[in-house]
Specification:
The structure holds 2 protein chains of 2 kinds. The radius of gyration of chain A is 31 Å and the shape is globular. Chain A has 17 helices and 34 strands. In chain B, strands 2-1-3-4 form a 4-stranded parallel sheet, sandwiched between helices. In chain B, α4 links the parallel β3 and β4. In chain B, α2 crosses α5. The chains are: A alpha/beta, B alpha/beta.
Chain lengths: 668, 166
Amino acid sequence: MSTVNIPSPNGQPKIGVYVCHCGINIAGRVDVKETVAFAKTLPNVTVATEYKFMCSDPGQEMIQKDLRDGKIDRVVVASCSPLMHEPTFRRAMIAADANPFLFQMANIREHVSWVTLDKNAATEKAKALIAAAVKRIVLHRPLEKTRVPVTSDVLVVGGGIAGIHAALTLAEAGRKVYLVEKEPTIGGHMAKFDKTFPTLDCSACILTPKMSAVRAHPNIILWTYSEVAEVEGFVGNFKVKVKRKPRYIKEDLCVGCYECVEACVFKKGITKDEFNVGLSKRRPIYIPFPQATPLVAVIDPETCVQIKRNKCKKPCVDACERDAIDFDQKVEIKEIDVGAIILATGFKTFDASRISRYGYGKYPNIYTSLEVERMVNAAGPTGGEVHLQNGEKPKTVGIVHCVGSRDSKTNAYCSRVCCMYSLKLAHLIKERTEAEVYNFYIDMRTPGKGYEEFYEKLLKENVHFIRGRVAEISDWATIPEEEGKLVIRAEDTLIGAVRRIPVDMVVLSVGMEPHENVDEVRRLFNVSCSHEGWFLERHPKLAPVSTFTDGVFLAGACQGPKDIPDSVAQAGAAAAEALALIDRGYVELEPNTAYLQEEFCSGCKTCLGLCPYGAISFNDEKNISSVNGALCKGCGTCVAACPSGALQQNLFTDEQILHEIEGVISYV
Amino acid sequence: MSDNDRKQFEPRIIAFFCNWCTYTAADLAGTARMAYSPNVRVIRIMCSGRLDPQFILKAFREGADGVLIGGCHPGDCHYQEGNYKALRRFTLLKRFLNMMGIEKERIRLEWIAASEGDKVQKVINEMTEQVRKLGPLKLEPASQLQPQNDRVSRVEPVTIAEGEAS
């Protein structure tokens, strides 16, 4: 083996071992006293002690005092995961003028006390991990973090309320923001809603000013109808390629006058209007909705006769006084450098047809909640009228909660917003139609400011509440009163009986789901997902908007079901995290890079093809490899492959790992 | 070895988990208090691609009865493709170990994503049982090894199952 044992600067290493109780989190399962006594027997350990909370100030001060007193020069803390508190203890060491890399953690909480039932087994395992750390730290040597400057611009992906709020916050702080949205307009789901719970403010009234502010803000570059195609680089220095799809309209010339839309050879809509979730049809040339931002027409290449078959009279071109229509537009790739990325890619609603017994798509007058949102919206396809397909107003309406939520067959989780929006829709439907409204719920979940009060209000409005999951919706009448109606069959768990409620209209309160292409997106940005497909935060409580990829933050429902207030709050938090990163001006990179011991390199070139970052090149003069530390990300793949052991990885040298193996197995 | 002895045998297994997926998943298993057998001791490496085959040999030589390797799912590697490199080396090493008389069941490679705490629990429990059944690793003198003329066919090829990359 080639690596030389680096002796401690002052002769023999002096190792301090600090075992944390973590309250009873560790001490409840691991015999801390025995562990400390064991640590004292290990070679080079000069201090071994315990404390209730090592991460607290007094705990850190214990370490610092021993370092300053010269009792120790290396520190092993046996506590939680290094992913949790390694930075804390490293900072404590810096404060005591010690090199923070003469430090090693033994994870005796997440990997021992929390997962081991037997106390003896837990204590033995804790001892083994401490022994491994002690054995390994002898070979640690001082390292320095490298500082890399940070690009101050930020990319926000997704133009729903979360993305809008994050972009505006950053822009107000003077940062340049690229806001990328895949649809032709920003606004997301919120733009489709009529009112918002529990205050019943008009959704458009509170959203559209923010949309205009995005459009007008000098620090925001808004790219709608665009998608991120490629992300390279690392925290503070991302290189991103954005694909701008052709909308066949010159964005800088179009004023959104609708003349081209009116002039189209199709005098009526011919294809599903995405904004009205299919309740109306649109033409091939269209503006998604009157407050669309940017207010620029777009031509759908799938339905436009000119684009598809190149033989249209093109009345739109004649109608446009500003010559904004350009059928020759091509995909444009924009390359940008950003320091941080905020993902605010949102959610999709559950496809109600997946639960066939609810009859969505089979029977008329069964709508999803999002369709009803459009229906009750004054700017929607029905002008705010709630009516059946025959044009009449419904006299009875059933609202079915938890469609695609809290059900192991679809999604086990609670979508968090459906109870509240169902209450809101009940109120709005009653207001518009004076119908009898029945809510079928499993549990009413109304945690939030003013939410429970809103539920109380609905109870007073004589909306009916039936506690029980709906079994089936059909048109199968068993008594004359049910003829021509939709029959909702559900067990009323409060009276303990199965009930059949005939209604004219059914609203299915669909839950929230991750987008279908979430796998693609997470790979693009190198973030993880939960089982369900929600982006995974770095820590559910302490780092809820960060991800495991430094410099990539999360906002809104892409991280999990969220209502508008929570999405906005999280977007603000993500913007603040991004600012904290950028305003520091630099990032410090973990010095776990590969390095070459030139005298051992045989010039075999095995490593050259392995590095995904191009950090290894070949020095033809010396006939050996050469590692560029600035490009190396520290995976260690080349190190593992080097036949002569010439390549090593800081913090993870062969010798350190071999020592760790010896330690973990031989002492206990 | 009698059945009674086997019951008492507690195998020692060393695991090498990558920092970004499997180590994080093991932390998650902890946070979620998913108890599992205490026989596996985890060594953290930044990427499964860092796994030098000598680490595994060393583990067996030091007395480990089994070695478990955990990395990100194919396509999910934090460093793009380190896990594919790990897979290649693992495949070769498994053949090599088999020739040396170490049963292939003593070494296992698993793709475990950061969100799969339950998979950490399941794999560690399975692995412990499997190695417990095999009994302690005894490295036999070379002269006692069986001839390995059929060595290639005795090792099952490791393939990435469909739907694995999730």
